[in-house]
Write a structure and sequence with these properties.
By secondary structure, this protein is mostly helical. It has helices at 4-16, 22-35, 41-51, 57-67, 70-77, 79-85. The protein is globular. Keywords: Plasmid.
């Protein structure tokens, strides 16, 4: 299986630096998820978390809330981070 973290590092970095829009970020995340064998919301979100500095968790979690279940994301990002976004 392709290292999904490596594939996600570019869109995570670009989104964090405001080089791509939230919509473009979500599009690229879903594209990587669907094109990576064995990938699902868990592998995508944990890989994104690994690529993101803790100070940016809330910013990066915001578009993910539009893609994935809020309760599921709390398990990865923590309840405080998700509540900060909502």
């Amino acid at each position: 299986m392709t290292d999904i973290g490596y594939r996600l590092s570019e869109p995570v970095t670009e989104y964090s630096l405001d080089k791509i829009t939230k919509e473009e970020f979500k599009k690229r995340v879903k594209s990587i998820e669907t094109s990576t064998e064995g990938a699902n919301w868990w592998t995508v979100c944990t890989a994104i978390l690994d690529e993101t500095h803790k100070s940016n968790y809330a910013d990066i979690a915001e578009p993910l809330l539009e893609l994935y279940n809020r309760e599921d994301l709390k398990r990865i990002f923590g309840e405080e981070t998700i509540e900060e976004v909502v």
